[in-house]
Amino acid sequence: MSAATTSGVIEWMVGVPDSDFFLEAYEQKPLIHSGGDVDRFDALLTLERLNDRLAEMDLRDGMVEMTNARSPIDRSDYVKNGIVDRVALTRGYRNGATLVVNQLQHSDKRLADFCRALEQDLSCHIQTNIYLTPPREQGFRTHYDSHDVFVLQVAGEKTWRLYSEPAASPYRGEKFRSGEHAVGEPSHSFVLRQGDCAYIPRGFFHDAANLGDTPSLHITVGLIARTWADLMLEAVSEVCLKDHAFRKALPHDYAKQQFEPSRLQPVFELLATRLSAAATPTKAWETLRENFIRSREPDIAEAISSNRVSPSAVYVARPAFIRIAAASEGVRVLGPGSDFRFGRAPFDLVCKILSGEPFTLTQLNHPEASDVVERLMTAGLVGRLSAVTPRPWDHRGAASLTAPS
Q: What range defines the domain where residue 382 resides?
């Protein structure tokens, strides 16, 4: 379960209800939303804030990269002994290189909160890479991404081209290889200006260039989704762990030159039949779900600063993926980075605390309520209602969503 059914952040980005986005666009076709509030992405990042972050962060190898479509840039030009040379970084940017700040959500709370909200709607890992391109420059040649992306134009503008022959749902980590993929002809051309957002499914070839006279700053939001292949592989693993027939050795001579692979077919077909009869999605789904929940980043900001729980204070569950289950040793709560056991608290009490409805300890009226609330606050799953600040996507408005032309 999740403490929130929808975050609203997709509608904030693309301007239409989530249901329309999933029905008409998700994993199907590129879309662009333009004409919104030009300053709306300032809540996530600005050029000035990025400059500050680059000046104050401990920049290690891999955190920042430089790229230029005109000429390759060697990492050794700006990384020395695992440390990013800031002077080389700024010099490279002034000479036309695009700066790529990877995974900034790990060190910026605004972006971390944004990613947590988007995870609520998509049940997948969300990452943010930041692209700062100088005027009249281009960072990458034509390529595709192996994951879906939202592109949020923060400042300046970029001209994008999409091509007519997308790669078919490339697997995670599959790289574009120049000369091996048929790009096709340009099929869409559009300009993303400040405040615009584009959605591009994985596999769509694209390139983008800053043709303007000011820097272009955009956030690429990567959707690292689990696939049916992940579920199937997990289901196969579950069967193989239980059925000893799958663990017998291959023929002793299978690696020899004269081995005839047709000898494998009868046993292979037998095992495929056993697999088909035994494999179910339930256990595999449960494994993938728990691994996903446990791997989320908890929001512990208030847990550090808050005092101990108060009977009169109003509390509320924070939006987060959680799983509540009755166990032999009590109630189990699985959440981002945490796994709690409550031996004395009743199941209904824990469910009420994590329902998303505001409450006070006095209203709960149970001797275990204070301990449960305090432990869940420590994990970032519960906070004071007064500490909940409005997020920009809480004030979203309807707008148009159209295919790029």
A: 301-387
Q: State the average pLDDT over residues 176-186.
A: 70
**Proportion of the chain above pLDDT 70, given as a percent:** 94
User: 250-307, pLDDT tens digit by residue?
Assistant: 999 999 999 999 999 999 999 999 999 999 999 999 999 999 999 999 988 888 777 7
CATH assignment of the domain containing 88: 2.60.120.650
218 and 342 inside one domain: no
**Tokens 């920042």 belong to which residue?**
64
| Cβ atoms of residues 153 and 194 within 8 Å | yes
Please, are residues 126 and 220 in contact by the beta-carbon 8 Å criterion?
no
Whether 395 is covered by a domain: the verdict is no
- Give the burial class of 31: count Cβ atoms within 10 A of its Cβ; 0-12 exposed, 13-18 middle, 19 or more buried: buried
Q: What is the rounded distance in angstroms from the CA atom of residue 377 to the CA atom of residue 211?
A: 49
In a shared domain, residues 175 and 103: yes
Residue 143 shares a structural domain with residue 233: no
Span 192-219, average pLDDT: 95
Last residue of a domain, one of 265, 292, 319: 292
Residue 331, both tokens: 């109630």
3-state secondary structure of 29: coil
Q: Could you give the count of Cα atoms lying within 13 Å of 214 in the half-sphere of its Cβ?
A: 9
Look up residue 309 and give its DSSP letter: -
Residue 398's pLDDT band (boundaries 50, 70, 90)?
Answer: very low
The rounded distance, in Å, linking the Cα atoms of 85 and 99 is 13
